[in-house]
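Dear H.,

Thanks for agreeing to be a second pair of eyes. The structure we're designing against is below in token form, covering all 467 positions.
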């Protein structure tokens, strides 16, 4: 600890001492200083105060700000989309805590349990000899499997290691409960447009780390365009700005056309197996259910342009047709199956239009979940009540013995009845009178409901009202 200033606040700048850092950690520090490093790497802030757009985490009075300014070191999970600043925040904490903790950085994509155990063993030894904790940053920690995450537990619990894990995935699903319970989870949100614009302006004027030496100007509409299409991802925004600056060297100014050329195609935030996948299919489903065709088309476009399998979307829309539209519009299921066949037969992009047509139709269709509710209630009774046999009258009697035992006795052929319905009970005695299907008055289901009510009255016999 000799030669290091003891600080009362993590926001005070400690005396630098690079000799304490391992080659891996030093490489992380040096990467941002290289002129050939990507602009986003060079512009990474080295102090918490320099971080833009995370006021909800780092503003005065916010939990993380107060904890760090009070000198508190604790294990945490930083959860947010790509480019929101998780790694930046971790390295800013590293710069502010070099007098208090040794720093190690690992990528869960590139390291395995052997590397992890070596780091943890060194951390334990360091704590035992120097009384000094290790601040361990693990990028994409969700890529570690259960056994690798479990290996962190003893060191985190003993205090040898203060863990900062960065993840783009929902920690509730991807981090084991034992480790999650020992960490505080902070949500790092995508940067708002103003923060992205401020960040790009900073990069254009910074002569030491940014593009200031190029003396490149930029139009306001070009700035706003880049801020909009990069979806709060600082890394993508700075990457696009760097390309745009290269394209604009002959003109000396980035206009909207150059900015659009630099972003030749917007890369949509979408994870086909993670939380964003479920968020967007939920948004599509609920927008259709709420008869919002415009929102439904938007969420459909987000999924398709994000790379979702169109047949997965088709399957979900087939389910919607039977579960949410139901018998209020029986044609919806037919159209859903036709759309599925169209997608399967002609593929993309032509098949996308069939899905769009189906989405609009489903949003406009009358809806009823009466069949869905009835089916669930019938399944519950089938599973949870005694498996009584059918009434004698509707049992089949293919043999003489079965006829002798009364199978089929009292059966009335519906087609021979005046209304095509016989006064005959079809449920077991224990469930007699049970009603599962309760039709709505929407669409075709109104007509079906009236016909079923009339049939129920006939089955109960003259003078008896259906329940």
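And this is the sequence the design step returned. I haven't edited it by hand at all.
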């Amino acid at each position: 600890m000799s030669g290091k200033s003891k600080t009362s606040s993590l926001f005070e700048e400690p005396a630098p001492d690079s000799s304490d850092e391992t080659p891996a950690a030093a490489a992380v520090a040096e990467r941002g200083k290289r002129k050939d490093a990507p602009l986003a790497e060079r512009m990474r802030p080295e102090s918490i105060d320099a971080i833009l757009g995370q006021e909800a985490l780092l503003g005065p009075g916010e939990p993380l700000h107060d904890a760090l300014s009070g000198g508190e070191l604790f294990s945490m999970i930083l959860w947010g989309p790509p480019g929101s600043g998780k790694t930046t925040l971790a390295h800013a904490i590293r710069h502010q805590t070099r007098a208090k903790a040794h720093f190690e950085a690992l990528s869960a994509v590139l390291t395995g349990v052997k590397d992890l155990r070596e780091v943890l063993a060194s951390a334990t030894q360091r704590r035992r000899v120097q009384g000094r904790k290790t601040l361990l940053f693990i990028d994409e920690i969700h890529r570690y499997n259960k056994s690798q995450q479990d290996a962190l537990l003893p060191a985190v619990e003993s205090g040898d290691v203060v863990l900062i894990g960065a993840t783009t995935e929902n920690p509730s699903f991807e981090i084991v409960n034992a480790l999650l319970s020992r960490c505080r989870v902070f949500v790092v949100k995508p940067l708002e447009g103003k923060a992205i614009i401020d960040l790009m302006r900073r990069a254009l004027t910074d002569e030491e780390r940014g593009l200031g030496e190029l003396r490149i100007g930029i139009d306001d509409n070009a700035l706003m365009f880049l801020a909009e299409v990069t979806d709060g991802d600082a890394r993508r925004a700075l990457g696009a700005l760097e390309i745009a600056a290269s394209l604009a060297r002959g003109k000396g100014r980035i206009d909207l056309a150059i900015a659009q050329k630099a972003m030749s195609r917007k890369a949509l935030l979408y994870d086909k197996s993670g939380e964003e996948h479920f968020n967007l299919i939920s948004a599509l489903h609920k927008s259709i259910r709420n008869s919002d065709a415009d929102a439904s088309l938007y969420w459909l476009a987000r999924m398709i342009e994000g790379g979702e399998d169109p047949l997965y979307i088709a399957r979900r829309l087939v389910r919607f047709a039977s579960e949410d539209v139901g018998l209020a519009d029986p044609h919806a299921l037919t159209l859903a199956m036709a759309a599925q066949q169209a997608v399967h037969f002609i593929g993309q992009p032509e098949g996308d239009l069939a899905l769009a047509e189906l989405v609009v139709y489903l949003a406009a269709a009358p809806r009823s979940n009466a069949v869905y509710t009835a089916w669930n209630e019938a399944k519950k009774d089938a599973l949870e009540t005694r498996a009584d046999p059918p009434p004698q009258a509707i049992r089949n009697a293919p043999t003489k013995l079965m006829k002798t035992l009364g199978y089929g006795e009292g059966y009335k052929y519906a087609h021979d009845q005046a209304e095509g319905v016989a006064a005959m009970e079809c449920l077991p005695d224990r469930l007699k009178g049970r009603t599962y299907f309760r039709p709505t008055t929407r669409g075709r289901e109104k007509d079906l409901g009236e016909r079923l009510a009339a049939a129920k009255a006939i089955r109960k016999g003259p003078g008896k009202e259906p329940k």
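Two observations from my side: The longest strand covers residues 101-107. Residues 415 and 421 are 7 Å apart (CA to CA).

Warmly,
E.
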